[in-house]
Inverse folding.
């Protein structure tokens, strides 16, 4: 969406201020559309009443993302790919984090295949109050045998409900896979200069999104995109080639930047499709698995930041998945929303009179880290999140946003009843240890001031040594 | 139409000039198509197939008819054909209209891809030289140049004149380090000179940073007089340009860094750093008086960075070519999003014309080792998938922290792990097109082993 004025969207609304969308006025709703926090479908009169049909159509075309959004899969696990409006995240936000599709191959023996599929499907890591997961599985045809491929796809689907990418340049192989998986709306990879006619027919027959692979030739890629769009096939993903090394790697990045720029800054709709990255290609450059997985992460980082919309990856090692997942999370965090929790007292588990009170700040990352370290170890406790304007412990101690008087005020505001506690005690983060003397004076014996560990991951050990307090 | 007509049949028929009748489909004089739609079983599904088949037939007929001079334009629209069927059941016509005709194109379109450059990028980032050789009154073997960019890093708009540089950390007393880092420095941990040599000779550092942390009143409270001996030791040990850091104590740092600036006079070192919460003027002036470059450090806030840069220039008199910025590095998973966008905004603001921001940037990438995911043996959260080997997890944490910020505009990285240094070097050089390598067939992944 290029439009920046709510007024121009307001013109396409019923202008009745009916409040059905939950906003007080149509103008407020229009502002929500501009920031993409509201959807067109939420204006029910516009959608339901025939007299607004033309306005609805106009509005939809105005708010459509500059970079087309493609849906892969069905149901809860469906992924949205593309749909971006900006070049740099702080210009608004990036919306749809690129799904990571980890590969399996049709020449794997059944047990190994099932094991890998399960590992992909169940991998998880807790971060800022959310579970991070993998989104997709890419099934590669190494055998080039339609029957083997179909059997592999069937096994994958029996063990995972993740959306799939069916990968082969052989139309007969793709067709065999589609016969098994078409209802789950997989992405097919890929049409190229040799097979595009057959693959176009498959995309049409099975109603699935399709990848166009024309490596290192943007004219050729655009030609194919134009050709497919001309056939009415617009659920397209572009593969402009991912070179893992050498000068072509530089060219790869330049291509991604140029494609993104054409889509979101120059409104070139005929090339404005989501772009696929193949960090898996790092594995073609070396026999050393550590080197390959590190380089795969480096490629992933480059294209998470600069316009990759969907990725096929290989390394399931923790030292690959953890950094890649966190980087993607960080880059796709909406910078418009401060990552804070509401200040105040929180209960973890079922805290009672014998439970400790841990102190932390209202920076969401800090709070959820402390919370998960307490909860996952089965500890019942209170946490007080002090309002530091969303700054972490170390920085807010240095910057003055966390101070002894602020702590006193926060407990008073929360009306925490120390007299109900059997062991009235607050546990300071180790990094705020220097406040303990001043806090003793401020609280004047109403509560004990204890110093906890510097990292909340060590609360479990701290509890064993120091809780309940000895005196 | 009980059976579908195959195109090859049609072609054959047309080729034999025998086009009077095709199963259930009649072609007459002026190329009219008649279909008996009155037969039983005609529904939307039929219309759907009909639409496709008719389109194919129409194409063939058009080519054929064109050759013999028939007006054929009307035949191009299968939907129009469906609607022309007589009698036309309403649902059939509606279904035919709703289902888009599909026909595989016969050839690829021929399109050209073109895109412009960003015309709003008008400013050039200030070029800053670190280190001074004999010719310029110092004793360094070479100098290091930062800045000079006219576009975002690795963008097509303008090539970067200088590759990002790496300065490796050296401390003036033993400090706590993650296991994966410590193993590389155990043999030199008590000798800053040897430590610096190892960083340059073995790990390929462009520069070294000597951190005078022992001056912290809470650690050894080493006097400035005593501490700067380490600076002399490092200057003797290596001939790369150096950076001198304090302990971070806002009261002590101005004293220590001013003294260090005097000792290193003429060497054009990077003094790290001046901050709004301390006597920045004293540090700025020490840089000016001794010919050094001042690192202007702010905490994730673009307006504070502008304020500090302005004060250093206008009040302390630091020349433009002697300022580098450190807008703070919050590491991967510990607020990288803030650090990344802050730096990207600073660089874009500079390119678009904000003269208070047109300076090279530095990143304290070593902060990555403060993130629990980089050093903890296992997850404190029992429900997490296994965290694997921390000896492998740590270096990649530092690599991604640094490299991400290279994309945002960082010119110089302060780093610690030798593997991380090597990778950040390699990827930044690669993206500048400076590394020759045979690129494998980029479709080979499809068939590789698992």
């Amino acid at each position: 969406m290029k439009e920046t004025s709510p007024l121009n969207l307001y013109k396409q609304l019923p202008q009745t201020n009916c409040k059905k969308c939950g906003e007080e006025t149509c103008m407020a709703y229009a502002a929500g559309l501009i920031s993409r926090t509201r959807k067109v479908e939420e204006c029910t009169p516009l959608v339901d009443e025939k007299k607004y049909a033309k306005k609805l159509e106009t509005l939809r075309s105005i708010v459509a993302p500059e970079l087309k959004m493609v849906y892969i899969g069905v149901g809860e696990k469906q992924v949205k790919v593309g749909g971006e409006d900006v070049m740099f995240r702080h210009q608004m936000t990036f919306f749809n984090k690129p799904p990571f599709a980890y590969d399996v191959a049709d020449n794997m023996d059944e047990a190994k295949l099932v094991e890998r599929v399960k590992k992909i499907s169940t991998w998880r890591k807790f971060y800022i109050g959310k579970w991070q997961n993998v989104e997709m599985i890419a099934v590669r045809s190494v055998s080039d045998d339609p029957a083997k491929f179909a059997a592999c796809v069937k096994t994958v689907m029996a063990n995972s409900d993740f959306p799939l990418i069916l990968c082969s340049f052989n139309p007969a192989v793709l067709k065999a896979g589609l016969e098994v998986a078409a209802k789950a709306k997989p992405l097919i990879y890929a049409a190229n200069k040799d097979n595009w006619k057959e693959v176009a027919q498959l995309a049409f027959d099975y109603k699935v999104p399709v990848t166009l692979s024309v490596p290192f030739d943007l004219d050729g890629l655009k030609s194919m995109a134009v050709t497919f769009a001309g056939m009415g096939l617009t659920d397209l993903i572009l593969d402009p080639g991912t070179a893992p090394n050498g000068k072509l790697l530089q060219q790869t990045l330049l291509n991604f930047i140029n494609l993104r720029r054409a889509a979101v800054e120059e409104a070139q709709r005929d090339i404005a499709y989501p772009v696929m990255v193949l960090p898996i290609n790092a594995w073609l450059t070396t026999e050393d698995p550590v080197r390959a997985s590190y380089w795969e992460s480096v490629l992933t980082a480059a294209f998470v930041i600069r316009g990759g919309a969907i990725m096929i990856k290989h390394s399931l090692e923790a030292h690959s998945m953890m950094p890649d997942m966190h980087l993607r999370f960080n880059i796709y965090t909406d910078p418009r929303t401060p990552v804070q929790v509401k200040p105040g007292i929180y209960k973890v588990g079922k805290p009672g009179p014998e439970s400790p009170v841990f102190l932390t700040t209202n920076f969401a990352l800090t709070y959820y880290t402390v919370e998960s370290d307490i909860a996952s170890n089965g500890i019942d406790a209170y946490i007080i999140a002090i309002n530091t304007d969303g700054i972490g412990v170390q920085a807010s101690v240095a910057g003055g946003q966390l101070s002894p008087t602020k702590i006193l005020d926060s407990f008073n505001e929360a009306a925490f009843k120390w007299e109900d506690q059997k062991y009235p005690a607050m546990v300071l983060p180790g990094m705020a240890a220097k406040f303990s003397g001043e806090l003793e004076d401020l609280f004047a014996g109403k509560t004990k001031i204890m110093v906890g560990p510097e990292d909340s991951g060590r609360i479990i050990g701290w509890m064993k040594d120091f809780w309940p307090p000895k005196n | 139409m009980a059976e579908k007509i195959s195109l090859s049949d049609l072609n054959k028929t047309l080729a034999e000039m025998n086009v009077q009748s095709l199963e259930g489909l009649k072609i007459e004089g002026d190329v009219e198509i008649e279909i008996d739609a009155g037969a039983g079983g005609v529904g939307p599904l039929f219309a759907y197939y009909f639409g496709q088949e008719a389109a194919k037939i129409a194409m063939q007929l058009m080519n054929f008819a064109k050759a013999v001079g028939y007006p054929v334009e009307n035949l191009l629209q299968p939907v129009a054909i469906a609607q022309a069927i007589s009698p036309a059941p309403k649902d059939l016509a509606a279904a035919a209209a709703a289902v888009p005709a599909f026909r595989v194109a016969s050839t690829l379109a021929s399109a050209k891809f073109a895109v412009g450059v960003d015309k709003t990028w008008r400013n050039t980032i200030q070029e800053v030289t670190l280190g001074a050789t004999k010719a310029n009154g110092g004793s360094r073997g070479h100098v290091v140049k930062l800045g000079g960019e006219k576009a975002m890093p690795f963008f097509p708009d303008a090539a970067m004149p200088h590759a990002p540089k790496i300065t490796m950390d050296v401390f003036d007393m033993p400090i706590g380090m993650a296991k994966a880092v410590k193993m590389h420095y155990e043999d030199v941990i008590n000798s800053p000179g040897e430590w610096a040599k190892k960083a340059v000779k073995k790990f390929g550092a462009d520069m070294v940073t000597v951190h005078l942390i022992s001056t912290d009143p809470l650690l050894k409270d080493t006097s400035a007089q005593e501490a700067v001996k380490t600076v002399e030791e490092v200057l003797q040990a290596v001939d790369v340009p150096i950076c001198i850091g304090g302990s971070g104590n806002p009261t002590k740092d101005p004293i220590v860094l001013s003294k260090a600036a005097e000792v290193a006079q003429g060497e054009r070192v990077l003094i790290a750093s001046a901050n709004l919460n301390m006597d920045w003027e004293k540090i700025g002036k020490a840089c000016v008086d001794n010919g050094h470059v001042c690192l202007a450090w702010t905490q994730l806030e673009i307006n504070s960075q502008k304020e500090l840069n302005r004060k250093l220039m206008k009040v302390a008199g630091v020349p433009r070519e002697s300022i580098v910025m450190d807008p703070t590095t919050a590491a991967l998973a510990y607020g990288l999003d803030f650090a990344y966008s802050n730096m990207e905004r600073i660089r874009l603001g500079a390119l678009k014309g904000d003269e208070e921001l047109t300076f090279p940037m530095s990143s304290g990438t070593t902060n990555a080792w403060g993130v629990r995911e980089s050093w903890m043996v296992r997850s404190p959260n029992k429900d997490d998938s296994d965290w694997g080997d921390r000896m492998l997890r740590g270096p990649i944490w530092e690599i991604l922290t640094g490299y991400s910020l290279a994309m945002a505009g960082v010119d110089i990285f302060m780093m610690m792990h030798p593997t991380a240094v090597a990778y950040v070097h390699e990827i930044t050089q690669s993206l500048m097109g400076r590394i020759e390598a045979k690129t494998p067939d980029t479709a080979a992944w499809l068939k590789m082993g698992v």
About this structure: DSSP finds 14 helices and 13 strands in chain B. The longest helix of chain B spans residues 44-67. Chain B touches chain A through 77 residues (CB under 8 Å). Residues 41 and 212 of chain B are 90 Å apart (CA to CA).
